[in-house]
Specification:
307 residues, ABC transporter substrate-binding protein, alpha/beta, ABC_Transporter_SBP, four-stranded parallel sheet, elongated, ABC_transptr_periplasmic_BD, disordered N terminus, signal, 11% strand, Vit_B12_bind_prot
Length: 307
């Protein structure tokens, strides 16, 4: 999730779900296309060699979970972490992607575990049980996301589907952007109510830059604070953004009405013109194929500024 990019004290979206027990009799799906062994690696991650098509996959990354199911690899997934709430048929458990427990993961007898980061030596611990770990880091660009679709496709025996998904997602986004009138507008992207934001140096910032929008969080250095600065209410009011995107609507109940009720915010151009957009937190924080939905939401908001 993109919110993971923010400092640890940023608001975390807590998702709950029913635990799923390890299945001892899960029927392995028939092998699909793809020659094994294969060696795969996501941008910025170590390579992994898979001797055969994985039949018992554990995903500890919501973005990877969404991608696996979009590829058609869902039948191979035996467990996902507690934050992987999409699609509905994903076998959600109490496994944690933030603090993974090798013993709890091993109970699902996986032959492949997909994570977004490995800072605890998880890959080494699982390797002792013969399990491979594939790291899918936070995507820094749209191209990184497309590459991850292809990597997951190749790793799971769905290479053609991975390439097709990457191509279709790229084409859909390119078309949405090209069909949207470019406007000289400024925007504020809200991660939480303490005014943590993103700059144009982040994945989200780069997506919005494609629409010609100017980010009020950039300041003199978009890379400052790792691209996730904490703004002040005064700075936001002084910048008077044309658009406000709320990535804290589900977690924190923020919407156009709550924003307008903040001291002085009813004077903002975005508030007065009805350009406060409450986004689905999950879609706004993952680099899955649902990026297209995020891009479409931004395009709709930009188009309405000229109405």
């Amino acid at each position: 999730m993109f919110r993971r990019f923010a400092p640890l004290f940023a608001v975390l979206l807590v998702l709950t779900g029913c635990a799923t027990r390890p299945s001892e009799d899960s029927a392995a799906p028939p092998e699909t296309e793809g020659a094994f062994p294969v060696t795969v690696a996501a941008p910025g991650a170590p390579p992994v060699t898979l001797d055969k098509q994985p039949q018992r996959i554990v995903s500890l990354s919501p973005s990877a979970t969404e991608t696996l199911f979009a590829l058609g690899a869902g039948p191979q997934v035996v467990a996902v972490d507690s934050a992987s709430d999409y699609p509905a048929q994903a076998p959600r458990t109490q496994l944690s992607g933030l603090s993974p427990d090798p013993e709890a993961i091993a109970a699902y007898r996986p032959d492949l575990v997909v994570v977004y980061a490995d800072t605890t030596g998880l890959a080494d611990a699982l390797a002792r049980t013969g399990t491979k770990t594939l790291v899918m880091p936070d995507a820094k660009t749209l191209e990184d996301a497309y590459t991850q679709f292809e990597v997951l496709g190749k790793a799971t025996g769905h290479q053609a589907e991975g390439e097709s998904l990457a191509r279709q997602t790229r084409d859909d986004i390119d078309k949405i952007v090209s069909d949207t009138p470019k406007r000289s507008q400024t925007y504020y992207w809200e991660l939480d109510q303490t005014f943590y934001s993103v700059t144009s140096a982040t994945f989200i910032g780069q997506v919005l830059t494609r629409f010609g929008l100017t980010n009020i969080a950039d300041g003199t250095d978009p890379n400052a604070s790792g691209g996730y600065p904490q703004l002040s209410a005064e700075r936001i009011l002084q910048s008077d953004p044309d658009l406000i995107f709320l990535a804290d609507s589900k977690c924190c109940g923020q919407n156009a009405q709550t924003v307008a009720a903040r001291p002085g915010w009813n004077t903002l151009t975005a508030v007065q013109h009805g350009h406060v957009i409450a986004l689905d937190d999950d879609i706004a924080s993952r680099w899955s194929p649902r990026i297209v939905e995020l891009v479409r939401a931004v395009a709709d908001a930009v188009a309405k500024t000229g109405a």
